[in-house]
Specification:
Blueprint lengths: L1 H18 L32 E4 L4 E4 L2 E10 L3 E10 L5 E3 L6 E4 L2 E5 L5 E2 L3 E3 L4 E9 L13 E10 L5 E9 L3
Antiparallel strand pairs: 1-3, 2-3, 3-4, 4-10, 5-9, 5-11, 6-7, 6-11, 7-10, 8-10, 11-12
């Protein structure tokens, strides 16, 4: 009986890991913030699964010396996946946890980030000069669905970037979704 239980748990964990693949670009491949092509305009194709891919690479901000850039955003009926890359431009250690407590608001619906499904390493203590990238996934509750074609705007709140002396600034983005 224990073998069956262990086999079931192992299979379940492997399936959860397979579900995390988002197919979203962080805009910073090669662990380089400069790797994204900010000036290029990409098509935003609708895929066969009913999802929409949004190029948000023009979205960038800085909070207490942390450069934060968005990559692609994939909107599906059951989730929103957002690619992000960051760079600590200070000489201090910065703390940023966008996948723990981050939210996205779509109309009257709020989705919370799920750090268990984050791809890459995007949060934590970020040492001076370090560049990181990853994909943060926001899931819809089981009883709701996103009407992908009706989404016009995404309001992201990724939490605060904090310094060692507890100075902090929020990281927020509003992304307009074109048809």
């Amino acid at each position: 009986m224990k073998k069956i239980h262990i086999l079931f748990v192992t299979t379940f964990i492997l399936l959860l890991g397979a579900c995390a693949e988002s197919g979203v670009s962080t805009g910073g491949e090669g662990n380089s913030v400069e790797a994204k092509n900010i000036g290029e305009k990409k098509e935003t194709p609708k895929e066969d699964d009913g999802s929409k891919l949004v190029d948000a690479t023009a979205q960038t901000t800085e909070a207490v010396g942390l450069k934060v850039n968005l990559g692609e955003i994939k909107i599906s009926e059951d989730r929103v996946a957002v690619g992000m890359n960051i760079e600590n431009t200070t000489t201090d250690v910065l703390n940023f946890y966008p996948d723990m407590g981050g939210t996205v608001v779509i109309g009257d619906m709020q989705l919370d980030a799920n750090f268990m499904y984050t791809e890459g390493s995007i949060g934590g203590e970020i040492q001076s000069g370090v560049k990181k990238d990853g994909v943060i996934v926001f899931f819809v509750s089981e009883d709701k669905k996103i009407d992908v074609s009706a989404v016009k705007e995404l309001k992201f709140n990724f939490g605060d970037v904090t310094t060692s002396d507890y100075t902090s600034e929020p990281v927020n983005f509003t992304v307009t979704v074109s048809e």
